[in-house]
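step 4 of 6: structure.
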Amino acid sequence: MADNSGSGAGEISLSLEETNKLRISLGLKPLEAGVPDADAEAERNYREQREREKKENEERAVKERIEKMQNRAKLRKKLEGKGLGEANEKGDGSAADWVRQNRKQERSRARERALAEQRAQQLAEQDALAEANQDSAYTADHLKGMRVAHDLEDFQEGEEQVLVLKDATIMENEEEGDQLESVHLAEQSRLKQNLENKKKKPVYTGYDDDEFSMTIGNKPSILSHYDEVIDGVKQKSFVLGSEEALAQEERARQEVSERLRGQSQSLSYTKTQIMSDYYTQEEADVKFRKGKKGKKPRKVRQRRPLEDTDLAAPAASGDAMNVDDVPGSSGRESVSIATTNFVDDDDLQQALAVARKSATKRRAKRTAAEEIAEQVKRIKEESDDEATDRAALDTLQSADGIERVGGMVFSDTTEFVRGLTLDALAPVKKEDPDSVAVKQEEDEDGAARAALGQTIKQEPIDNVKMELDTTDADAVLKMETDQEHLGDAGEDEAFDPERAANEVNSPPMEVYATAVTAHSTYLQHAAIVDEPLVASLVDRPSEETLRRERMQRKQMQWMQDQRKLALRMERERQDEKERRKRDAANAGKRSGYEQERERERREEEMRFQEQKRQRELDYTMRDYRPQVELTYTDRHGNALNQKEAFRELSHRFHGMQSGKTKQEKRLRQMEEQRRLAAMPSNDTPLGTAAALQERQRRTGTAHMVLQLGDTRNSGRVASRSHAPDVLSRDVLQ
Amino acid sequence: MIEILCNDRLGKKVRIKCDPNDTVGDLKKMIAAQTGTAWQKIELKKWYTVFKDHITLADYEIHDGANLELYYK
């Protein structure tokens, strides 16, 4: 550490000696002094290289020399032994010696030959012995009981197979015992199996090939393709010398042949058999299989015994006016018709035929006079019943001065008839007799048919279809049926023309008159007819109606004017055309200047015409007031108000609809409204008011006592009216 | 013999004479003898290569006049 401060600034370094000292103390080898001389080193390296090469050369030379020596020694070794010249050195090369040696050789050769012969003989003896043994011991019997691991079918006739002991593991051998196997056959079967596996046949092909390819005796078990999976591969084998295998085969063959024999058909037939028209016994025995079907219970129409209710049925089904009529003997057929349940067409046709026949019979029997008598009788009965009717009729008759006959049926208007009162009738009577004119036509022969030809003339309301119009076909029909009933009833009665003449004057006129008013009110309510029409009947034209009428009249007027105008203009146009044609004809004769003037004139004229037309149009259109009524209806045909119409349009435009519940609700509302409209205006749906009025009329009292609870002490009235519902029922009866 | 320069750039610069067959550990011991630091505390580096004690200088290809960085652990 002497010169700690080395050469550089701040560098610490040691001298070589100090370093070596330190290295020694650290256990390192000391450093060599000085920088190694490159030339010296190169020289040294050269020298070393030369020495190495020299050494190598020497070594190679030595090796070559040794090899040469060895080769020579080998060659010399080949040349060792005696040469041709030196060969007889031993036996001194004389002829006697040569002969001696020759004989010696010959002797040795003979000896060898004898030995070989002896040995051959020995072997032959052995072979013979073995052969003898084989012949006596090893036969087919020896192999009896050996199992062959092949199917018997694998061995073909006249084919030779070499069987060897089967190569098996100890376990297999334990299990199966020694088995014989043909290597060739085993290989073949393995190859076949591999090919089968390669095919990858589907289990089910959809074809019925299997059924036909199957040999006759072998029917495969169900799902036979799984047999190998479940039971393992079945090894076919047979035991040599056993009868079992052969027998089995024989048995199968026999089975098949037997079956085939069973199917065989004899070609011999009885040629002399006579064809019979009837079944032979065998043919008769042949039966067709019938499907199992439950026998259907046959429908048998049964006749129902006639009852009292049945007899009453036609009376009930007839019109109300015939309630009291007793149906005659001919009513029986109609009874059966009415009560028969028409199940199918045959029955219906039969029943209709019966009905028709009976009807024609009856009609033929009855005379016109009888009919009149019956009718009269019936009318009389009715008019007796209702005194008020008579009063009303009298008043009407006095007003009309016309007598009338004939029954009328208002099937659809019974409701209104029931609801009518006398005060509703009064204004009609007062109003004017012409408005409700009833005309009766009578035939010369006085046939009852004339009584039916009743017509009602109603000038102000002739455009309204009224059910009152008795010229209507079904009304006439109804009357006919009525008369039939009457005929039945009055057959046994004596004909009294005088009485009939009297009674003719009493038709249910009241019913008729009230019906007219009822209709008018009904129509008004249901808004079926225009108001002016109703008003003309009821003598109460409203402001609105008048206005509408005026408008209509104006419209009509305007349209008429238009038509006239159009006609006139058409005529003018025609004239113009004529004139033009004439002018054109003349134009050819004129000069150019004149033609020019003519054209100008024509143009002027046309302009004038145009202006005129315009003015006319303005004039005509001044009064043009079209009645525009914008209405919207939904798909049910109901009128819609503004809001509803907007909704409908909006829905159509956007292609959407209200929800199901909303639609249902609207339908419900519509239904309700419809029912409300159908309801009579002056009554409850159950007709309570009508019932009340009826009762008032019958009892002649304006009041009615309604009482609940104990009715023992409250007299007749109370006993008849326990509760409102009871009342209504009671009155309606 | 080769000479190696080790600089810690904190004021110590050591020039060491050594053999190429010396290990880095030997070199460290020699540095420690000259600087007075324990040789275990010395770390020699060249850029990011930290030289390991048991490998010779020749194997690291440290030749004459090489400059090593000297750090203290």
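step 5 of 6: annotate
 - Chain B touches chain A at residues 1, 5, 11-19, 22, 26, 29-30, 33-35 (CB under 8 Å).
 - The longest strand of chain B covers residues 2-7.
step 6 of 6: archive
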